[in-house]
Amino acid sequence: QVQLQESGPGLVKPSGTLSLTCAVSGGSISSRNWWSWVRQPPGKGLEWIGEIYHIGNTNYNPSLKSRVTISVDKSKNHFSLKLTSVTAADTAVYYCASRSWHFDYWGQGTLVTVSS
Amino acid sequence: EIVMTQSPATLSVSPGERATLSCRASQSVSSNLAWYQQKPGQAPRLLIYGASTRATGIPARFSGSGSGTEFTFTISSLQSEDFAVYYCQQYNIWPFTFGPGTKVDIK
Known about the structure:
Chain A is an all-beta fold. Chain A has strands at about 5, 10, 20-25, 35-40, 45-55, 60, 70-75, 80-85, 90-100, 105, 110-115.
């Protein structure tokens, strides 16, 4: 069974760059899955950020596309998220997830707070 | 972008009773709809995909139906561990979108 684990700084300054990594275990990142990022502001709903396939194809949410980059490192079996020019509105729990069609496996999530 | 709406926002149910949740899409998503359960401090958990197929290990008391723009999720007899927030999500068209959630709490 695939397991996912997010890691990265829990605090980012306004106008800075949020960087997170998702380690994949129990399976190869070069499988048929897409690898996604989803976020959830405190007390609010879920927002899909974007995804990557192991050969590098990406899809992004248009609402974030200008600020988001998702990349994959097959040698480390992990994928990463970068979100630039962050504001307080980007404060959220960030989840990584795997998707065949639906999101079948999720990481536990990591809270990222944007504050000076 | 496809907008997903859910009703009701909150559903108060007694243990053992039936709970019926609704999800509507602003345009057809065919059967490319999933339901997730989320408890406080936890990641969402996949319950239903393809509008009506239970994910691995999901009890039979959970069921889903519908296609196109109208979907229903039912818990036939609520157990104590079922009190949570439930989200629908379409994966028919990018960007993938979630409904705002229905909170099922104890009556």
